[in-house]
Structures are given as structure tokens and as C-alpha cells.
Design goal:
This protein is an alpha/beta fold and about 450 residues long. The chain contains 19 helices and 14 strands. It has helices at about 15-25, 40-45, 65-75, 90-100, 115-130, 150-160, 180-185, 205-215, 230-235, 250-260, 290, 300-305, 320-335, 345-355, 360-375, 405, 410-420, 425-435, 440-445, and strands at about 5-10, 30-35, 50-55, 85-90, 105-110, 170, 195-200, 240-245, 265, 275, 280-285, 310, 345, 380. Helix 17 (about 410-420) crosses helix 18.
Length: about 450
């Protein structure tokens, strides 16, 4: 770090100032530039070790995204120079494309300084060793939020399996975010620029099932007034996400299995098969052991859709992620309803952490939206937190936490202690191995009195 020269290119002058203040005492030299047109000159005149490059500029380059254009220019001028892309929250899909075109990593603004420093340190260390691997920190994909060990493990699995073409079965309770997981896998896959098609197959009748998935020809049934392309064809070259697959009857499962085995579909009213090339993602709230009952679900279909399975944890098992997600929704709905930003008081946080969330993230979202709308003061109290009456109707039993969930805190405590001891108390290295920020690790150290 101390001998490194870092070039930062961004048209936001305030950002350039902030990065300079962050890095000036940690590296040899920080070069900042707001005009990307000057990149070739700067690279020719300076021995740069690392570059931070914004993805969007107000320039004359008309490529749809200037960041990718300048990334390719830098790769041509300095093939060995590691480039970290700076991107806005809503442009993560473009950032993922940039990884395929030579960037070593990307950071989403606004970032946490500890996270940015960890990425820079790791990149420079790998550069010195001649490695091209990316940092080991695991960033949440898309809108997924979580610093808990259980979610970091899930993010790591997504990062590993997304670039493959493996069929994936996503398991988890209603409201846990299985659809976000599916979308994140597609966005980080080699098919990211191809179609992403979602179908709720659990709600389709027999006729609709075939018509929706395989398409139909004009006159195939009473209301078939025109030819219609099915979802398999619409997703050709891309990703097909079949949600609630555990709820389809056996007769529909047989038709689906045939299409997957043959990699082709036959539209209703036609005898001509249509070849399809799709990456299949499926999701269900039905436990895998229940699916394995052949009176309910074909075992050969399970093997076909389940090359890899992902288990999305219930919200009650995610510890302080609950507060992180709650704050995310508070900001989101304050902006949506043009309301002053509200914050959670300590007692309100404790109420959130003590609740069992039968409706999972979806229920927490409802509660935070209502709190923003009804808030009378800046600091929310327990009285402002009202959980869904749908999930807590009279006579309904609360969701029981499993023994594993009761022991989750002890497991996390032991894991953190072991990693911190392994690195002799070095918080930066311990946080990096755990896949969380330094700030998140400090919170856990205080929480578990380590």
C-alpha cells in the first residue's frame, strides 16, 4: 500500500476529494481526474499500480456505458493494470458485465470506507504476487442485504454457481426473497444479457400450463385466436425461472420433465418440436424431504431441476440482518412518500429482533412501510412497529424456532472468536475472512462480549 500509486477517475469532484482524503496517508500517491478523455495521457506519464474508474460520465462517448468503453481502453493500454469499477446501486448488472471484460472488482456507491480499503489492499497484494484473483470479500448481489454468517455463505454460493449453467433449486419459506436470489443468479451469469423469464407455475391450470410454457398455435383451443410463443421460447438463450414448482400436479410434472430432457417444446396445436436453450432456476417453499415423496413429486424431475440447491434462511435466523433490512426499507419508503427520514430507536430495534417473522422479509417490509407512513416523530418507538395482522391472525400459532436457530448465535459467536484468534486480533483480516465489514465485526464483538 505505502508504495502504491492509485489513479481515480470520476466526474464527481466531491467523490474525488473523499477518496483522496481516505487514501493520501496510506499510499504513495493519489492521482485524481474528472475527465476520462485524459486517461491515456495519465497512464503514459505515471507508473500506476491500481485504477478506480467510474462507470458513467457526461462525455461525448456514445456507447451506452462509458465505463465499459474506458475499461476496454485501459485494458488495451495497460493490460496488467487492475481496474476497480465504481458504480451506482442500480447499475450492478453493468458492473457484473465489466468483470467479464477485465475489471478485478467493483464497488457500489455510497460505499463503506472499510470495504473499499479491503478491496484495494487485496487487489494490490494479488498484483504484487502476480495473481489475478478478485478480493475474497463477498458482496450481496442486487438488492439482497445481509452481513450474517448464514447470508454470507449464501452469497458465496451464488458467486460460485452463477457463472455456470447448472440448474438450481431455491428452497425457503414464503417471503424470504427466493425471487431476488433467482434474479441475482441470472444477473451474475454468462446469460446476463439474454432474457430472464419468470413464471408462477403453481397457479396454472392444465391448459394454461402447456400454453404458458410451451406456447400454442391459432385455433388450438377456444380462445386461441393467434399463435403465441411460450415462456420456454421467450427465455431461449437466457434464464427461465419457475416459481412455486413444488405446487404443480404430477401430470404437469411429466410434461415439464419431457421438455427438459429433450431440450425442446411442442406448442399446443402443433406437431413440430421447437428446440430451446435455457438455464433453469426453480423455487419452492416445500421442503426437499417433502418433495422426495414420489406420491407428490417425481424424483426424476427433482434430479433434473436440482443440480445445485440453495437454502434461503428465514428472517428469524438472520440476527442483526433484521435491523439492516429494516433501515433499508425505512430509507426506501421515506423517499417514496416524500417523508422525512426516520430512524429506529434502541427499544424499537429490540422489538424487531425479538419477533419471529412468520411472513419473513415481506412482513418486515410491510411493517416498515406502515411505520414511515404513520410516523409522528423522527425516532421510532416500539409502538410504531406493528406487525402484519395477516400473519398474526387470532388463534394462529407463532412460528417455532428450531433448535438449530436457537443455537445460531452460539455458532456465530464461536466462529467469530476462532477467526479473530486465528489472525491474532487483526480485525481487518478477520472481517475479510468472515466476509463482513470491519464495522459489522465490531458490532458482533460487542454483541457477544468477545
Amino acid at each position: 500500500m505505502k508504495n502504491a500509486t492509485i489513479l481515480v477517475v470520476d466526474d464527481d469532484r466531491d467523490l474525488l476529494t473523499a477518496v483522496t482524503l481516505l487514501l493520501k496517508n496510506r499510499v504513495k500517491k493519489v492521482i485524481t481526474e474528472h475527465n476520462p478523455e485524459n486517461i491515456p495521457t495519465l497512464l503514459s506519464r505515471n507508473d500506476v499500480d491500481l485504477m478506480l474508474l467510474d462507470m458513467n460520465f457526461k462525455s461525448a462517448i456514445n456507447t451506452g456505458n462509458e465505463g465499459l468503453y474506458w475499461l476496454n481502453r485501459v485494458n488495451a493500454l495497460k493490460p496488467q493494470l487492475p481496474v476497480i469499477l465504481i458504480t451506482a446501486y442500480g447499475a450492478i448488472d453493468l458492473a457484473v458485465r465489466s468483470l467479464k471484460q477485465g475489471a478485478v472488482d467493483f464497488v457500489v456507491k455510497p460505499w463503506q470506507n472499510e470495504q473499499l480499503m479491503a478491496i484495494i489492499e487485496e487487489t494490490l497484494a494479488n498484483q504484487k504476487k502476480g495473481k489475478s484473483t478478485k478480493p475474497v470479500s463477498v458482496a450481496p448481489p442486487m438488492e439482497l442485504i445481509g452481513e450474517s454468517a448464514i447470508m454470507q455463505e449464501l452469497f458465496y454460493k451464488i458467486k460460485k454457481i452463477a457463472p455456470t449453467d447448472a440448474n438450481i433449486l431455491i428452497l425457503g419459506e414464503n417471503g424470504t426473497g427466493k425471487d431476488l436470489i433467482a434474479a441475482a443468479i441470472h444477473t451474475q451469469s454468462m446469460r446476463a444479457e439474454k432474457p430472464y423469464v419468470k413464471v408462477d407455475v403453481g397457479s396454472l391450470t392444465d391448459t394454461l400450463f402447456e400454453s404458458e410454457l410451451f406456447g400454442h398455435k391459432k385455433g388450438a383451443f377456444t380462445d386461441a385466436r393467434d399463435d403465441r410463443e411460450g415462456r420456454f421460447e421467450a427465455a431461449n438463450g437466457g434464464t427461465l425461472f419457475l416459481d412455486e414448482i413444488g405446487n404443480i400436479p404430477l401430470r404437469q410434472q411429466a410434461k415439464l420433465l419431457t421438455a427438459l430432457q429433450n431440450r425442446q417444446v411442442v406448442p399446443l396445436g402443433s406437431n413440430s418440436p421447437v428446440p430451446v436453450d435455457i438455464r433453469l432456476l426453480c423455487a419452492t417453499n416445500v421442503p426437499l424431504e417433502t418433495l422426495a415423496d414420489e406420491s407428490r413429486f417425481r424424483r426424476d424431475l427433482i434430479y433434473r431441476i436440482n443440480t445445485v440447491e440453495l437454502q434461503v434462511p428465514p428472517l428469524r435466523a438472520r440476527g442483526e440482518d433484521i435491523v439492516l433490512i429494516a433501515n433499508h426499507f425505512l430509507k426506501k419508503y421515506a423517499a417514496k412518500y416524500l417523508k422525512p427520514e426516520v430512524k429506529l430507536g434502541e427499544a424499537a430495534c429490540q422489538k424487531l429482533l425479538a419477533y419471529h417473522y412468520p411472513g419473513n422479509v415481506r412482513e418486515l417490509q410491510y411493517s416498515m412501510e406502515r411505520a414511515v407512513i404513520m410516523a409522528e416523530q423522527e425516532l421510532l418507538t416500539p409502538a410504531d412497529i406493528i406487525f402484519s395482522p395477516i400473519e398474526n391472525k387470532p388463534g394462529s400459532a407463532p412460528v417455532e424456532t428450531t433448535e438449530a436457530e436457537h443455537n445460531l448465535g452460539e455458532l456465530e459467536r464461536a466462529t467469530i472468536r476462532n477467526v479473530v484468534d486465528k489472525h491474532n486480533g487483526n480485525i481487518t483480516k478477520a472481517a475479510r475472512e468472515l466476509g463482513i465489514t470491519r464495522a459489522a465485526l465490531y458490532r458482533r464483538l460487542n454483541k457477544y462480549d468477545i
